[in-house]
Amino acid sequence: MLADPSGTLLVDDALSSLARFEAPPGTSGTLGVRSEPVWLHIPLQVPAASVGIWVLDIDYPVLQRIEVYLTTEGHVTQQATLGSLQPYTQRPLLSRTHALPLTMLPGHTYNLLLRVETRGAMVLPITLNKPTTWHSKALNEQMLQGILTGLALCLLIYSLAQWINLRDMLFIQYALLIAGSLLFSLHLFGLGTQYLWRDMPWVELHAASLAALTATCGSFLFISQALAGDQPRSWLLRSMRGSAVLCVVLAVLYALDLLSTRAVTGVVSILGLVPALMGIPGAVGRARRADPVGSTLLLAWVLYFMSTATVIGVIRGWVPVNFWTLHSFQFGATLDMLLFMRVLGLRTKALRLEALDANRERDVMRSLAHTDPLTGLPNRRGLNISLASALSRCSAEKMLAVYVMDLDGFKPVNDQHGHDVGDELLIAVTRRLQGHVRQSDLVARLGGDEFVVMAGQLHSLQQADELGQKLLDAFRSPFSLNNVQVEVGLTIGYAIAPHDSNDAIGLLKLADAAMYSGKQGGKFCLRRNTGDLALSSA
Hints:
This protein is of the alpha+beta class.
């Protein structure tokens, strides 16, 4: 290699100065960050058995300008200009990488000279292969990039869809993080130039830094929301959101060319680590409380720091270039995105549990409002709701009977044995009533020793009377309550919809009047009210 600080050396100068070329640093495939152009000299001896064309390939698509000179005996036999800033349609091979077919005769010796000039790192994974081998490797890499890009797109679409459905800011912040990381990978591995911004020099020059700022902005927002989203006054939340605003300001200034690429690169190289460093204390605290969000974030950051350290080593020329080091950041970013997706999954689970808790609390409150606390039966409010619903479905062929009943002799049991036994008796009455009606029928308690049974889908008046008699007969046997045996009777009044009334209040009034009529007529009886008893009761 030969540095060209003045940038004035021509190919003839380089050929005449081959003795001045020095061996590159011990780190294979990378020269670190250099502002000056560098000439590379690669001597080639073509095997005598070799025929056809060889393909020179430099698999680092962001190199901006590469001048290639193939010489033999001091004469240039082939030359070309490659680089990310060259028009894509003018590339010798329309590929993702910088590739050039070289025509070399068997048994001849050649000198391959490369002049490399770029603003960023001079990472130079140079290979020389036969076309079939080069094509096979290119397809394998294209397949890998397709899989990783497709995965990132799926995560991006999923997060956007979840944000639209749930309106949870964590999902749109994750989408911003994914978009920045995806854009950076598309630029770094040449897919953007190949498919998206072909022959657009401004985008090619600005894509990397804008992508890095987008990903950093998303990181600030996502991590702060994941760790302190429920604490609006948290210093972590405020400072990270302020840093996200700083990223936006830097991106706007850079897009307007008010900041240089070198300045933005320096800022991003520091700012990119800040979200993880600021979030570590909160994540450690959550991990200590056995919160999986904390442990997941810590694992993601360990992978992030490892992959970032590898990339920095490659850029600075401290780590050799190979498949794993060249793809370390992309693999690390993909694993990070999957781990962050787990954070989103945990968030969704937490939201679902919160909704279940809210529904459960609502059901409990509704149950307290509509249920008798002693027996667990519907109270008057619960009965009215069920009765209104049942009346909407009843007809002359499918009648609805409402039985209002009052215990005979309950007060003496309460006075003689106490309220505890009285409560046990009410619970036992509940079980006995439920045991003598159908599963579709409803048993309710209005208060004290007054109960209601609602029976639907009755096909005849006789069936309603038979059910009432069945309930009456159920109370001819005594109740055994903790070594105490008590006897209570039952007086039942009932009315039938739609024959006697078509509304809930009317049915209950008719049945209640029939029950009181039975009480006055000697108790322990069943009476139906078709309307006449209500008048006499009034």
